[in-house]
Amino acid sequence: MKIGLDVAQTSAERAGCAWYADALARALVELGRPQGHAFVLYHQFGDWINGEPGHGTRLTGKGITMPLLHTLPVPARALWRAIEAGTADLPDAPDVVIASSFHAPRTPGAKLVYVVHDLVFWTHPQYATDATRLVCQRELGQALGRAAAFLFVSESTRRDFESLFPGWLAESGTPHAIASGASRWPAVESPTPRAPDAPWLMVGSLEPRKNHLTALAAYEMYYASSEHPRPLHIIGGRGWMSDEVHARIDLIAARGWPVVYRGYLDDRELRTAYRDSFALLQPSWHEGFGLPVLEAFSQGLPVIAADAASLPEVAGDAAILCPPENPPAWSIAMLELDRDPTAHARLGAAGLTRANDYSWQKTARTVLDLITKLS
């Protein structure tokens, strides 16, 4: 079977969905090529057109092609419009195409498998820009008519889908599966001691859904109450409606309190940040999966996470869970974890165990099993 993979998002500054597309592509190729499958990587996909597609995921070897790796925006747009109109074929003629970027273009001659990362653009529209909300609603609507199968990144996301489209999966008979993510890095063998000044860490684009304001309010309370307060490092690209967060960071830093916005980090720098930190704060209002939780677990880093959406499902009993709307609860959890080395070590070990419950190899097997049923 020849499998098309949408890796368009990997050509831009990467967030969770792009890392999912990258890691899934690598795992599918590793598992699928020995079974005789071939792969086509699409760096321009549907309406997701990149200015510089060559920055995206690159995989080479027998049975792998990347026909749009160097295709510039104007010809890429023209090609996908022609494919949509039925006057052009999909490059390299795959049998199935896995769409990971929320886009659901026509895929003539191939069965479309659509990945649902989250449905926040419908369930929590206040956490999506108007442009994103409209595009994602349109594309999911198209997927309902075009997809031969669906992949959900968590049971929580599948439940959101069922709440929006009650009974649709069963009535339509559309195959589907839970294809969770995993840490992109191997798990460390055991948690390592953290430096006395190791910082609290928050990872995620600065946008309303990530709830940086609760983390910052909790940090202020923690800092005022702790005898030896740790710094707070915030990592992530500058997202939309982030001015208030940056203003709050600047205000706290102006007092001499150690809150540092480090911006977007590449893969190597981010892994180092996890290894050098004290604990991860993940107070998101909503996550389709919450990849930073598993990334932290894999590096032996304890986690305090929101008790909302998919985060309890992913974290299991390996994290401290707090309401995302309650900064005092977060502050108390931070103080208790800071003062109790035994609890810190216990959570680090529990996180490692939890991280090992997830792997990209398992996810790739799930996806290949689903695709096989479509042939």
Describe this structure in words.
- With 375 residues, the chain is of the alpha/beta class.
- It has two domains: 2-182 and 359-374, Glycogen Phosphorylase B (Rossmann fold, 3-Layer(aba) Sandwich), CATH 3.40.50.2000; 200-355, Glycogen Phosphorylase B (Rossmann fold), CATH 3.40.50.2000.
- Helix content is 42%, strand content 15%.
- It has 14 helices and 13 strands.
- The strands form two sheets. Strands 3-2-1-4-5-6-7 form a seven-stranded parallel sheet, with helices on both faces.
- It is globular, with a radius of gyration of 21 Å.
- The model has no long low-confidence stretch (mean pLDDT 96).
Helix and strand layout, with pairings?
Elements: E1 2-6, H1 16-32, E2 38-42, E3 64-65, H2 73-85, E4 96-99, E5 111-116, H3 120-123, H4 130-146, E6 147-152, H5 155-164, H6 168-172, E7 176-178, E8 200-203, H7 212-225, E9 232-235, H8 243-254, E10 259-263, H9 267-276, E11 279-282, H10 291-298, E12 303-306, H11 311-315, E13 320-322, H12 327-339, H13 341-355, H14 360-374
Parallel strand pairs: 1-2, 1-4, 2-3, 4-5, 5-6, 6-7, 8-9, 8-11, 9-10, 11-12, 12-13
Helix pairs in contact: 1-14, 7-8, 7-12, 10-13
The poorly predicted ranges are none
- Major sheet: 7 strands, parallel
CATH architecture of the largest domain: 3-Layer(aba) Sandwich
- Give me the side-by-side strand order of the main sheet: 3-2-1-4-5-6-7
CA radius of gyration: 21 Å
Strand % is 5-15%
User: Which whole number gives the mean pLDDT?
Assistant: 96
Structural class: alpha/beta
DSSP summary: helix tally: 14
Give the helix proportion (percent range). 40-55%
CATH class of the largest domain: Alpha Beta
- By DSSP, the count of extended strands is 13
* Corresponding CATH superfamily of the largest domain: Glycogen Phosphorylase B
CATH topology of the largest domain: Rossmann fold
Tell me, briefly, the overall form.
globular
Ends distance? 8 Å
